[in-house]
Design goal:
The chain is of the alpha/beta class. The protein contains 22 helices and 31 strands. Strands 8-6-5-3-2-1-22 form a 7-stranded mixed beta sheet.
Length: 698
């Protein structure tokens, strides 16, 4: 087995991506987009106001013939990036580094672990030669489809603003133009050494999304599906997002577990089903988000050791140990603090803007904010602005198998899974397809609370609302932490008088819990990120093999020797076994068809050739010695004579043994086989016993 880490990703919006070669089957694990690479581009609103001044700068530059004018300007751009140093052009989108170096026709299977892991898939499905089978959970496929459609819809505004391009290669990617981009922004697009240039692509179309979605085979929770008879695939909840999952891959060479971004804190979605990953031959650990919580290891190292010793084997015990009241209270305190800041801004006459795209967090914030408004006795409208908002809210209320037990109990009580159903009925929230909706401008009033796309702050309704409110010190912008550096994300809207609150959600498993979790899972071989080595060590007595992998490098993992073969019990009991003591093996020769089904080899025996004693064939590692063979025949009362043959290229027979009394037969001894020819089956069986005793050395 070979494992290549293409990208370690950056949080839930850009999950890791890997290539796994399992017994010759090449598997792509997730295909995301790095939407943080939109940061160097200007949103439409900033471009609209900045372009006139840029034209003036261009005229001034043309009138200035001084040789130091251009270098001085570049030096200024390098040190102080501002809204004029952004790229004023239709953006290209960044796929996974190094994925473009792989021949798409070599990929056999694609596994999508989360809704965000699907965003780069249309680029792949439209490539020549791509024919891989794509698997994703029903929820990940549907939510990912909605996100892609929303992305295409938001990008249309940029295409309309900048118009069609004259060439396939944009001007801003020319060498002389790239050098003018400040290094901090240039690195986001091209990487530290420019190697990520090959991953840039113009965005796909709605037709590409439709074609991509049709090629996805959608799986239910824990549904088992078999690829080509040789690979059994199952998905289990990772506890992070609705539809997000970890994978179990079962093959004749052993089973492989893939642990993606996971979390024990799952008050909204189905709990992290870690038990399905126990005891695998190989476990791939790919939750890089745990690196965001290094303080857990530094501050609570002793507690980590104690937890590892006391960790129970039952799934309820593990989830109960970590999903405790303290952590629940911390999450609720975080949400309560956000709501209190929102209410404070509303009371001060400002509006609240929340461009958060994690579905679980979005729904939870929506519910808590609406409760806070009711508790304050204020009447504040809540707007949800997105081209897919209506479909999204409708779909999220019909996926109970991917929700937490508390949410499922609401369904059994005859209540909606989420509060937004009642809020819509009561007209406390308003769903709008876009910012230009007539309904929004005719009926909107301020202060208000707005949920909308996009967290990058570069496209969608967010750019228009920020342009409107960024100078209002009474208004509040709530950003998700760990996605984009605020100073760069807010660059187009500076100077910012608007208050900004940055919040971090769900850091993953957490470093303090990683070792205790892996000790409970007890894989035979663990593939673990190199970045974790300084923080976590594994005792040799509990882990047989730990292999560390790095981005851009291939790790080779040895699989178990041999494979299991299923044979029907009744015929197998009648096999004639030959025991070889020196080699410590038993052999039997059979006639049948070897097939593979559900990752297991099966032997279908041929019943057309019936033999009561089953001794027509045998296997030996040595040739019979003629003197011993003749002596054995004599002991059996058989008279035999030897006729030596001349060896040539056409004949492989070394000699013939003729028996006349009491049995008439001919025994051909060749270089690799012995054949007994006689008229009667009983005679052949008698001679076989004598020959078999010689071959076994008796």
């Amino acid at each position: 087995m070979e494992f290549t880490c293409l990208s370690k990703g950056r949080g839930s919006h850009f999950p890791p991506c890997h290539i796994l070669n399992l017994g010759g089957i090449k598997i792509l694990l997730d295909c995301p987009l790095d939407l943080s690479a939109l940061t160097p581009f200007s949103p439409v609103t900033t471009a609209f106001y900045a372009l006139p001044s840029l034209e003036e700068d261009k005229v001034d530059a043309n009138n200035d013939v001084g040789s130091m004018a251009v270098p001085a300007k570049r030096q200024k751009i390098e040190n102080q990036p501002d809204n004029k140093t952004l790229i004023f052009a239709e953006p290209w989108y960044k796929t996974v580094m190094n994925l473009h170096l792989w021949n798409p026709s070599f990929i056999d299977v694609v596994l999508i672990s989360s809704p965000m892991g699907i965003l780069g898939l249309p680029f792949l499905t439209q490539m020549k030669g791509f024919s891989a089978k794509i698997y994703a959970t029903e929820v990940s496929a549907r939510l990912g489809e909605l996100v892609m459609r929303d992305l295409v819809s938001m990008h249309k505004e940029l295409k309309q603003f900048y118009g069609p391009t004259e060439t396939d290669f944009p001007v801003w990617l020319r060498q002389e133009e790239v050098e003018k981009i400040p290094s901090v922004l240039r690195e986001i697009i091209l990487g530290k050494d420019g190697t990520e240039l090959g991953g840039l692509r113009p965005l796909y179309s709605e037709a590409d999304v439709n074609d991509c979605v049709l090629k996805i085979q959608k799986l239910k929770y824990a549904e088992e599906v078999c690829y080509n008879g040789i690979l059994v695939i199952k998905a289990f909840s990772s506890g992070v997002e609705m539809g997000s999952c970890n994978w179990i891959l079962d093959s004749p060479k052993g089973d492989v577990g893939y642990l993606s971004n996971s979390s024990f804190i799952s008050s909204q979605v189905a709990a992290f089903d870690y038990q399905s990953l126990q005891g695998t031959d190989t476990l791939i650990y790919s939750d890089f988000s745990s690196l965001n919580s290094t303080e857990d290891v530094k501050d609570e190292e002793n507690e980590s050791v104690q937890l590892a010793d006391k960790l129970p084997m039952s799934s309820h015990g593990l989830v109960g140990l970590y999903h405790n009241a303290k952590e629940d209270s911390e999450e609720m305190e975080k949400l309560a603090f956000i709501c209190s800041c929102a209410i404070e801004s509303i009371k001060g006459g400002g509006s609240v803007f929340i461009p958060i795209n994690q579905f679980g967090i979005f729904l939870q914030l929506l519910e808590e904010v609406s409760k806070a408004i009711d508790a304050s006795a204020m009447k504040v409208p809540i707007y949800i602005i997105s081209s897919v908002a209506e479909d999204l809210l409708a779909y999220l209320n019909i996926v109970p198998e991917w929700l937490s037990r508390q949410r499922q109990e609401r369904l059994f009580d005859g209540e909606p899974l989420f509060d937004h159903v009642k809020l819509l009925d009561d007209k406390k929230i308003h769903v709008l397809p876009n910012i230009h909706s007539e309904k929004f401008w005719m009926h909107s009033r301020e202060p208000c609370i707005v949920f909308c796309s996009h967290w990058s702050l570069r496209l969608g309704p967010v750019v228009h609302l920020l342009q409107r409110w960024h100078k209002d010190p009474k208004s509040l912008l709530i950003l998700e932490g760990g996605v984009n550096p605020p100073q760069l994300a807010l660059l187009p809207f500076k100077p910012m008088a608007m208050k900004v609150l940055q919040c971090h959600f769900q850091p993953g498993i957490g470093l303090r819990r990683v070792r205790s979790l892996l000790e409970t899972l007890q894989p035979k071989t663990l593939l673990f990120p190199e970045e974790f080595r300084p923080h976590i060590s594994f005792p040799s007595e509990k882990f047989r093999s730990v292999l560390y992998y790095s981005e851009g490098k291939t790790s080779k993992v040895s699989c178990k020797d041999g494979f299991e073969l299923k044979i029907p019990a009744t015929p197998a009991s009648n096999f004639y076994w030959n025991a070889f003591k020196e080699q410590e093996i038993n052999l039997a020769r059979v006639n049948g068809e070897l097939i593979i089904e559900n990752a297991r080899y099966h032997l279908l025996l041929d019943n057309t050739e019936k033999n009561s004693n089953g001794r027509t064939n045998s296997v030996s590692f040595r040739k019979p010695e003629l003197e011993k063979l003749l002596a054995t025949f004599s002991n059996f009362g058989i008279n035999a004579s030897v006729e030596h043959q001349k060896m040539n290229s056409e004949s492989q027979i070394q000699c013939l043994i003729h028996t006349a009394d009491p049995y008439k037969a001919v025994i051909e001894i060749g270089t690799s086989s012995v054949v007994i020819t006689t008229a009667g089956e009983n005679v052949a069986s008698h001679l076989y016993k004598a020959l078999d005793s010689v071959l076994k050395g008796n």
